Amino acid sequence: MPLQLAPYHKGYYTKRRLYHVTTTRICQLPGTADQREPVALGDSANHNRSRHLPGIVGFYGYAGWGKTQAARFVTNSVDAAHIEIKKFWDKPMLFEELCGELGLRPKNRSVAHMGALIAGHLSVTQTPVIIDEFDIAVQRNWVDEIRGLYEASKAPFIIIGEDTLPGDLRRWERFHSRVREWVPAQPNDIEDCRTLVRLYGHPGVTIAEDLLTNLHAQSGGSARRICNNIDKVNEFAAENALNLVDCALWGENRFDTGDAPERSGYVASKSRRHK
Q1: Residue 7: pLDDT band by 50, 70, 90 thresholds?
Q2: Is pLDDT of 22 > 50?
Q3: Boundary (domain end) residue, out of 184, 201, 235
Q4: What is the percent of the chain with per-residue pLDDT over 70, rounded to a whole number?
Q5: How many domains are there within the chain?
Q6: 244 three-state secondary structure
């Protein structure tokens, strides 16, 4: 069953630049807040491309930029089969999870059996398949097996991974050459930051523009860190009974930048211990 998302994901990612994961040549997602947006992670790729053209889309970028949440929204919108590969999976579990997403009941855990079942189903239904954490498939050498599913079905496939994914896949030229388009995720800009404040900020707390600008700059374009930092401001306001927080009030408090704070006096004390 597709995941049920909070209104945040549906309302936010339909308009995000990050969500421009391919072009209208691949597919156009109907029924969004702005149908002019070439949002397109899924929905009827075969309606917009000839069968002889590649049908794989690569969506890649840094952690925290919203790739997985965008994929989950598309999963709900177009009824795609969406799996997120886990590091502890083995190859049969990958195929089992995909069978589960497609509503298939394999008779055994044979990869050959499950692969034939999946490919046969996809060739008929043309269900879009979204595979997140594809970097793990690359590390485990599962790329050719997934290419086999695509080749046998010609269903649209969307692979999602970290920033190095396009380069890492060059080792598998037969797969890499079938990626019709590589689209980078985009960092969250200041307008995205304002949207996240409206959605995740405390209704009784206003974040002043100077602090909001600083928060966005310190978050490095990551939606995850922006949300963490909004929560930090919410907590600070609650602890100090404030309904408005600006840079002067925030003072020397730290935002989540991804860097661990240095321990005061650590180097000196360490050097003394080793004398």
Answers
A1: very low
A2: no
A3: 184
A4: 77
A5: 2
A6: strand
CA 254 to mean position of chain CA atoms: 27
Query: Is residue 153 classed as helix, strand or coil in its secondary structure?
Result: helix
Q: Are 218 and 259 in contact (CB under 8 A)?
A: no
> Is residue 12 located within the same domain as residue 124?
yes
Smallest Cα–Cα separation from 40: which of 31, 55, 29?
29
Please, how many CA atoms are within 13 Å of residue 102, restricted to the half-sphere of its CB? 26
Q: What is the pLDDT of residues 182-195, one digit of tens each?
A: 988 888 899 989 99
Residues 52 and 141 in one domain: yes
Q: Is 84 exposed, middle or buried (0-12, 13-18, 19+ CB in 10 A)?
A: middle
Strands of the chain (E only): list them: 56-60, 81-84, 129-132, 157-161, 179-184, 206-207, 244-245
Same domain (yes/no): 70, 18: yes
- At 2, the pLDDT band (50, 70, 90 cuts) reads very low
Same domain, 173 and 197: no
d(CA 163, CA 257) in angstroms, rounded, equals: 19
- Residue-range definition of the domain harbouring residue 116: 7-184
Q: Supply the pLDDT for residue 69.
A: 81
In a domain, 273, yes or no: no
Query: In this structure, what are the phi and psi dihedrals at residue 157, rounded to the nearest 5 degrees?
Result: -120, 140
Task: Specify whether 92 is located in the same domain as 217.
Answer: no
